[in-house]
Amino acid sequence: MTQTKSTFCRICEPNCPVTAEVDDHGTVIELRPTPGHPTGGTACHKGLGYLDVHNDPDRANWPQRRTNDKSQPEGNFVRADWDSSLQDIGSRLRDIREQHGPNTIAVFHGNPSTFDSAGLICYDPFLDAVGTKMRFGGSTQDMANKTTGAAHVYGSTSSFMIPDLANTHYLLCIGANPRVSRWSMMSAPQDNLDVVKRIVERGGQVRFVNPRRVESSTTETGPTLLIKPGTDAYFLAALLHEIHLQGGIDENLVRTKGKHLDELMTFVKAYSPESVEDVTGISAAMTKQVAAEICAAPSAIVYMSTGVNQSRQGVLCYWLTEMINFVTGNLGREGGTFKPTGLIDACPPLTGMQVIETSVGPLELPDPVGYSQLPATLLADLIENGDIRALILWSGNPLITAGGEERLRAAFEKLDLFVSIDIYRSVTGEMCDYILPVTDWLERPDINLAGTGMQSKPHVVYTDAVVAPTHDRRDAWWILARIAQEMGISSPLDANPDAADATFLFDAVLSMRGLSVDAMRQSPSNTVMFPEKDKASLFEQCLQHPDHLIDCCPPAFTEAGLIARCADIFETLSNEPPDTLKMISLRTPYMNNSWLVNIPRYRRGRNRDNPLHMCEQDAASRGIFDGDAVRVSTQYGQIDARVLIDDDLRPGVVAMSHGYGTARATTQRTAMKKPGVNCNVLMPSGVGTYEPLSFMSWLSGVPVDVQPAAARAENRLT
Ligand SMILES: Nc1nc2c(c(=O)[nH]1)N[C@H]1C(S)=C(S)[C@@H](COP(=O)(O)OP(=O)(O)OC[C@H]3O[C@@H](n4cnc5c(=O)[nH]c(N)nc54)[C@H](O)[C@@H]3O)O[C@H]1N2
Ligand SMILES: Nc1nc2c(c(=O)[nH]1)N[C@H]1C(S)=C(S)[C@@H](COP(=O)(O)OP(=O)(O)OC[C@H]3O[C@@H](n4cnc5c(=O)[nH]c(N)nc54)[C@H](O)[C@@H]3O)O[C@H]1N2
Ligand code: SF4
Ligand SMILES: [Mo]
């Protein structure tokens, strides 16, 4: 007799419902979609294929302690038990804290931790108990410009809006590829873009703005405007400039709900459709047409995402996007953008900035921080300079996912203590003193906390652990709580010493909505839907500056130098040699950042590694043919790659998937056998390379040099 259990996927933001079939031995034998689930989402092949991760024989199963020096490329690890590992880690952290201060202990929290709610609940209290402000993670490679931008525009790091796709008449989708990536900073049911197709079916219009004709752009959705990478700030400014000229600004609304409109208009006046067209590659006529389309649509959305966040001016692009939505009256309108309700229905006001003194100068984070973090590209410098002596890595793989692998490697060797909490011994884990094996999402109870306030269908879903953890894997919250105990600082286990699992943590959060784990277990599909709020309620609830106005031109942007920098970058781009190549990133359905790299079924055929995508025109002008070996370089590093001719790219743009370059993942056999190359070796790292204010890494639109390998015929890779 098998049993079915209702759970949900925790790989990306839709958190799709999944039905697990479990046999008498407590083994999950199948994961299936859950038709009829109240959210209507359907799990994709990655979620349904998660058993390949769950059952991967290369997983980390026991605590492991490294016995050789971190400078040795291959770690010598011995199996250890939990108590002695945690005691050793706790006492070493205690000593480091006492001798060098709490800020010398840093934590890096990577993307998968976002979907481990018990860990998330314990994370901030853990940092507070340690007393450290050294928080790093995936956010500065991903979307920190949005949280920091929201803090200045709306007065709260949590006041970021999502598009009302279900009701809109117009979508301008910039730097996103939702067909592959399933939306970001928005949790919408996975529907293979049906919600976007329906915009067109009901007579609306959709356009993508991207340097590549993306999978999302089809005859059923809409065309792509092929923009030059890293130029969206100028396109958006020109668009707003033109919307103004076309009379598309609702001055009355803006004067009552906003401030600093004149300063905003002064900024955009510098960028007319004509003056930016050479830099952006989008003709003035097209920019004017898009402006006219937005002005004419009964409701419209400008949505921007990761490709723009990563391309050097994410804060300004976020700001201009929000401004277009606001001044055209689409913010808080049906079919525009809005702030959904959720389990946590609050936008805590910005109370000021936290200042963290470091050897490279003071660094400022919004307070409360939300998802903002210190710049991951400064990790190497801060370790080298002695600011950081211990690093706890919770579901992060920065050697592969952040810029500057070689500098980071050299720095990590100098850490007094380096601990990885992960489901694998990853490339970065290989350098750690301890690997602490963690439960996967079939082995832990959970709620969908990270998506709260970002869901197009607001709901909370609870899952019990589908199966008990195998081997000696433990939950991340418990690991953090036990480390705290061993350090002699406050721990969630103090008040709950006998807690068998994380449900006491969930009860505390669920109680905010009068719910509990028991109540969730009684609900159909373990899900509670929340009634939607009036979209305009955001004007009362999310504008958190003391005057409750939207800041249309936050002084912090000028003070941080973003406005002057924008003009400088425009000047540089205007004078760029015409044959400059820029690298952008390319997500595929067969990878999730770095961590599906060991799954054999995703590493077959064309997906065995990560070639350099290049269009025919750029390849031909360099004497490069499909399959050729090339050397790609920047001032930060160089890699050797194989070329794949791809005419979906705009000329002048090359693309590569990140997450590869795993030759040193000694326990991940597939990853080691088919390593691919790490494009982040090429990415800028260190002081001066990240966006001021948001600390966003520059990972897209980076100029690269591509040369055919010396003797092409001999080096041809097949
Ligand atoms: N060039 C380039 N670089 C990029 C990007 C890009 O587009 N281009 N994208 C950036 C983005 S958006 C992000 S979010 C970052 C992500 O960067 P990271 O968060 O550093 O990387 P991931 O590969 O998502 O996962 C890190 C680790 O989490 C582990 N893991 C998986 N599941 C679990 C789990 O349930 N629990 C725990 N504890 N660990 C788990 C994996 O084994 C892996 O080692 O990468 C960024 N890097
Ligand atoms: N299959 C799969 N799904 C994923 C992930 C994954 O790795 N694989 N990662 C998950 C994570 S952590 C995240 S953050 C989300 C991200 O999801 P999205 O926010 O949709 O981001 P991406 O898929 O990276 O798409 C970014 C797009 O921006 C384009 N782009 C690059 N540079 C520029 C530029 O300068 N201007 C413009 N206009 N466009 C540009 C790229 O061509 C690309 O199509 O996806 C999530 N879902
Ligand atoms: S879309 Fe994302 S959350 Fe849904 S099943 Fe696929 S990987 Fe999981
Ligand atoms: Mo991300």
Blueprint of the fold:
Elements lengths: L2 E6 L8 E6 L5 E6 L11 H4 L2 H4 L9 E3 L10 E3 L2 H19 L4 E5 L7 H14 L4 E3 L6 H10 L8 E2 L6 E5 L3 H4 L12 H8 L3 E6 L13 E3 L5 H14 L5 H7 E2 L1 H9 L3 H8 L3 H13 L4 E4 L1 H4 L4 H14 L9 E2 L13 E5 L6 E5 L11 H6 L5 E5 L3 H4 L3 H8 L4 E6 L11 E4 L8 E2 L11 E5 L12 H12 L4 H4 L7 H8 L6 H6 L4 E3 L8 H4 L8 E2 L3 H5 L2 H13 L6 E5 L26 E3 L1 H6 L7 E6 L2 E9 L7 E4 L12 H5 L28 E7 L3 H4 L3
Parallel strand pairs: 6-7, 6-17, 9-10, 9-13, 10-11, 12-23, 17-18, 18-19, 24-28, 25-27
Antiparallel strand pairs: 1-2, 2-3, 4-5, 4-19, 8-14, 15-16, 20-21, 21-22, 24-29, 26-27, 26-29
Helix pairs in contact: 3-18, 4-18, 5-14, 8-10, 8-11, 8-12, 8-14, 11-12
Summarize it.
By secondary structure, the protein is an alpha/beta fold. It has four domains: 3-54, Single Sheet (N-terminal domain of TfIIb); 64-143 and 351-529, Rossmann fold (3-Layer(aba) Sandwich), CATH 3.40.50.740; 161-338 and 548-558, Dimethylsulfoxide Reductase, domain 2, CATH 3.40.228; 577-717, Barwin-like endoglucanases (Beta Barrel), CATH 2.40.40. Helix 4 links the parallel strand 6 (105-109) and strand 7 (135-137).
Please tell me about this protein's structure.
The strands form eight sheets. Strands 5-4-19-18-17-6-7 form a seven-stranded mixed β-sheet, covered by helices on one side. The model has no long low-confidence stretch (mean pLDDT 97). It folds into four domains: 52 residues, N-terminal domain of TfIIb (Single Sheet); 259 residues, Rossmann fold; 189 residues, Dimethylsulfoxide Reductase, domain 2 (3-Layer(aba) Sandwich); 141 residues, Barwin-like endoglucanases (Beta Barrel). It is α/β, with parallel strands linked by helices. It is globular and about 70 Å long.
